[in-house]
Amino acid sequence: MNSNIIDNLVKTLKILPGIGPKSAQRITFFLLRNKQIGIDLYKSLNDVMLKVNQCVMCFNFTTESICSICSNQERLNYGQICIVENPADVFAIEQTGQFSGVYFILFGCLSPIDGIKSSDINLDILENRLKKNIIKEVIIATSSTVEGEITSNYIAGICKNHNIIVSRIAYGIPVGSEIESIDFNTLSHSIIRRYEINY
Amino acid sequence: MNSNIIDNLVKTLKILPGIGPKSAQRITFFLLRNKQIGIDLYKSLNDVMLKVNQCVMCFNFTTESICSICSNQERLNYGQICIVENPADVFAIEQTGQFSGVYFILFGCLSPIDGIKSSDINLDILENRLKKNIIKEVIIATSSTVEGEITSNYIAGICKNHNIIVSRIAYGIPVGSEIESIDFNTLSHSIIRRYEINY
Predict the structure, then answer these.
(1) pLDDT score for A170
(2) Mean pLDDT of A46-70
């Protein structure tokens, strides 16, 4: 590459998750050959950087001060709050259409090893919100990792202190999977948490 | 996602090569969480879109009207021109330090199936340049694909018409590879084109 300007774009693209040096170069040349897409990307990026902030209720990204879910009175009154790690989780759960309450995004998990404490992932703010007695049920949808479990246990503790129903999304075999390909832990959980078939 | 602005960025990122829907979402959330990187990307993109154009000699991307390689009198006088498909190939060959001439970028290959003719990949411009009798040797570095070979043969034909030496970069086993893992065609080439060891 003979231009610092082009190099700078490659270097910045390389910082993005999942983009290595080769991809960054490929994307740069693609944008140079397809200038309209480059201009579209530039405009979208400008919009996002200038207009998007975080919802004061759930911390999801939004262009308003309160996001469309938290400002929906029906969903607020439903009394359920779903605790997730990332905005992408909200997106995934919304697609299922199985949840009618509001969300709370932690942006991470408790991790003693990495020194991430409860206040780093807004758990103090969550506790203050639970104290207000508007929430009837907390649904914990953190990852099924060590950190996710620690975080889940911590939140369950808060709920217990405030006498709020708390649940964890189910472990089990993924839909469409073959039993023989499922790992030991998942299969154990799916047997322990089996449900009776009513016929 | 509850915002059109965020959706637009995801949609635009999805168009980029090698970026699927999940990656596009992941990058978007990453940029929202790391606004400085988003701003850097925005600035780099703006610079590239506004300031970069194509070299009038080799068609590589540059911020000048003639790129740094084509404006280097020493390289021009060397009398060699290397024909490549993409700017990334120039970058790769420059890194070897084995080539002292100038380049010519086709931005594609001849492809009768896709209806790509010689004028679509600037071969008419190349022929005009070769007519001027300044180039002493043409080195063809197109891909080792059907299209790359067709293009190579076409260029070799032009060179023959104008009595210019023409060469093709060598086929053979990649450095560091094990013979048993090399495909039949490559191994055939590497045996046919074997070189005598002088000791």
Answers:
(1) 86
(2) 93
Q: Name the strand (E) or helix (H) holding B148.
A: helix B146-161
> CA B172 from chain center: how many Å?
20
A82-100 burial, b for 16+ CB within 10 Å, e for fewer? bbbbbbbbbbebeeeeebe
Of the partner residues B31, B33, B67, the one whose CB lies closest to the CB of residue A2: B67
Percent of chain B with pLDDT over 70: 98
The b/e string for B78-115 (b: 16+ C-beta within 10 A; e otherwise) is bebbbbbbbbbbbbebeeeeebebbbbbbbbbbbeeee
| CB-CB neighbors (< 8 A) of A60 in chain B | 2
Cα A129 to Cα A5, A57, A116, A134, distances in angstroms: 48, 9, 21, 8
Q: What residues of chain A lie within 8 A of the CB of B91, using their CB?
A: 1, 25
This complex has an ipTM of 0.77
At B142, list the tokens.
């197109």
Across the interface, whether the CB atoms of B3 and A27 are under 8 A apart is answered: no
Please provide residue A139's backbone torsions phi and psi, each rounded to the nearest 5 degrees: -110, 120
Give the pLDDT score at A103. Answer: 96
B9 min Cα distance to partner chain A (Å): 5
Taking residue B77's Cβ as centre, other Cβ atoms within 10 Å add up to 11
Using the beta-carbon criterion (under 8 Å), do B49 and A35 form an inter-chain contact? Answer: yes
List domains and CATH numbers for chain B: 4-51 (1.10.8.420), 61-168 (3.40.1360.10)
Neighbours of B56 (CB within 10 A): 13
CB contact under 8 A, A1 and B29: no
B140: which strand partners?
Answer: B83, B168
Report the distance separating Cα A38 and Cα A44, nearest Å: 10
Contact B48 A27 (CB under 8 A): no
CA distance B8 to chain A (A): 6
A13-36 pLDDT, tens digit per residue, is 999 999 999 999 999 999 998 989
**Per-residue confidence band for B124, with pLDDT thresholds at 50, 70 and 90:** very high
User: According to the model, what pLDDT value does residue B1 have?
Assistant: 46
Per-residue confidence (pLDDT) for residue A46, from 0 to 100 = 92
A70 band by pLDDT with thresholds 50, 70 and 90: very high
Mean pLDDT, chain B, rounded, equals 90
